[in-house]
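Subject: Interface between my chains keeps coming out wrong

I've been trying for a while to get a sensible model of this assembly. When I model each chain on its own everything looks fine, but I need the whole thing in one frame so I can look at the contacts. Pasting all components below, labels as-is. Any help appreciated, I'm running out of ideas.
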Amino acid sequence: RKEVEQDPGPFNVPEGATVAFNCTYSNSASQSFFWYRQDCRKEPKLLMSVYSSGNEDGRFTAQLNRASQYISLLIRDSKLSDSATYLCAVKKTGGFKTIFGAGTRLFVKA
Amino acid sequence: EAGVVQSPRYKIIEKKQPVAFWCNPISGHNTLYWYRQNLGQGPELLIRYENEEAVDDSQLPKDRFSAERLKGVDSTLKIQPAELGDSAVYLCASSSFRSVNEQFFGPGTRLTVL
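Reply #2:
Try treating it as a single job with all components included. I did that and got this:
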């Protein structure tokens, strides 16, 4: 079993839709959680960190469920420009190594 | 502020040939990472440097891969000899001690081994 797992998708949604991705992690010692966005043939860029209390940044909301060991990303009012691959990433307590999931592909259609 | 710079952006070589990738991190970032990203996968850490010291190279295939970060700034990743399975995107990233959780990635080097 992979340490970080994501549904590869693709998710095909119309503009304006709400879409959510989950990411599960296997190591209960994981302490820090992140969502990265990666456009086609580009480098990953940090979208947002995921805090225990959940956090929101505009149309994006990230949540953490430690009991079930998953993090989620909710995108409201999808834009064409949201089309990308969304990578989740985790770090263990006191560690510097970031483990990435394989990513979930999102296509937003007009 | 300039981002992480990598070169070359693309490299095509025949198997058994050597290849080297270069990375210049963001100025002032003491931590430098080399990742490999295969098609349809997330980045996988190869090696992490704190200044000039390699502090995590457990995932680096040491029989053919080597890396260095002289003077704690630029870094070079080398493969010798390259194998077909080495075809991937090699990403360099850096972070500062003030914000260790935020890694900034370079554009990557896309390696094709024929």
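Reply #3:
Confirming on my end. Residues 33 and 90 of chain A are 5 Å apart (CA to CA).
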